[in-house]
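Here is one chain, start to finish.
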Amino acid sequence: MSGMAGVIDYGAGNLGSVMNALRRLSIPARFASGPEELSPAASPFERIIFPGDGHFATAMASLEQSGYAAAIRDWIAADRPFLGICIGLQLLFDSSEEAPPVNGKKTRGLGLVPGAVRRFPGRKVPQIGWNQTLPRPGSKLFQGLPENTFFYYIHSYYAAPDNPAATAAEADYYLRYCSAVERGALAAVQFHPEKSGAAGLRLLENWASV
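Its structure:
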């Protein structure tokens, strides 16, 4: 099926459910012991998953201080397989409205997908629960899944890529927004495949098969 998957643990939640999903699919996985294990030239991992939840500024500060920010940038620059989940999608972008400037200083994301993360405009925020997801034709992540598959979401902010071609799937909540991105070996989703039943397992299997 696949070589070893490394899971980045920067102190966020949902890691146990991700590991359980990978175990159910017989995908070998373990937590990365540090950013040095993401060295493209000498990594024990064939692919990397960056799951989690939390605040954009807090998560980004943790990645910068731990060294994972630079390691993730290097991994993706080498076009090695990578899957971001929830905040693992949002942190790929340049900035977020969740982290406005403080004393004139802006919190920057990883800057790997040009664009910004914005807050939903409606009153009922966050979005919590199942929502239809509309994949773009040719998406490898969503191969074999019905067009209107439901996945589990929980988030108050959504990603807005500068280039619409980066969008691999969309969902509707007050507006039509990007719920997944794909570019080369880089993939990321706003929803939680590890909490989305059989459809989520199929998506993870698709990713591990690329």
